[in-house]
């Protein structure tokens, strides 16, 4: 049985002799065990110190988190040193399947081929084109004036700059630009804060939860929208039978065009980021966000004055919000939305909740390579310019194990959001009126 000792939360454990059934019992907020590479760790107290946030560890409590841990961490040797203090014992009956083995072999192939290594030239060129579009907007107004055609063209240039800056900060946030965490964190703060006016810690808090458990109710913040919309097949029926809901959801596929894409960036994100920074006393991110607005008003107040610049800014955010909403939601919302499934492996979870949009130079640029959503979710630290290399191998693995690999046209992917909203709204309405 091995020697007895106390785990981090004081419960006894037997070193070298921990069963998976025992692990699954430790799945509460005040009692969290996880499995990584067949080693069991008590992360109950460490969760609050976890750089990626406590909730990610909470979401995997009582589970095998190996593939998620490998996917998120570039600096595995450094992180493993922290895990040593949390070690309980070895797992004697790992829940290994042929699919898990095949995916881990694919992961090894990806690493051996160097597809996870940063591609400096690609990211330098992308960063420069973000800056050039902003500079073009300023030069346009300076040399050609503020007639309506020039203002609209400047809005277009700034929208492109801001949308592409959003994809850039996404790269830094996923640590796919630099091999070390320090530079990744610094540049993420600068790009999402000083270039976008948002918060790095706020983005990490939301986005890594989304990646850890995509489309899982109460674990993916991107689908926690029941105050406006109900999505999927199960949640609308649950709400309908319990007579719950705040909106006439049977019409949500229509009012989505009024309160979804138009308002997400201009209103909701501004208030949420401000609330997040103040609540957590995140003064650095708040200062960088303020720095963005100071820079923006410094550049454009000479052309429009104070309120005119504010209107110019909101116009940019209004257009960008449509771009951002459709691109980020088209690959997830129409897919399966469900409660957590403890026995679902990493590969199956990501494929079930994600779909791709067909590859083209425009789709790659327009979506920031999020048209490769499946590959991005399987390998979140992979530089996006390498997604096309691994995509055929992922398709082969799906074919071998009978898993659907879904890829659509850009139009179909966006249209499916509306179709899903219509179907889900009708499910709620029918259940509510039974």
From TrEMBL:
InterPro entries xrefs: Cyt_B5-like_heme/steroid-bd, Cyt_B5-like_heme/steroid_sf, FA_desaturase_dom, Fatty_acid_desaturase
Transmembrane segments: 255-276, 296-316
SMART domains listed in its UniProt record: Cyt-b5
Keyword Metal-binding: yes
Region (Disordered): 1-22
PANTHER family noted in UniProt: DELTA(5) FATTY ACID DESATURASE FAT-4 (PTHR19353:SF88), FATTY ACID DESATURASE 2 (PTHR19353)
Full protein name: Fatty acid desaturase 2
Organism: Biomphalaria pfeifferi
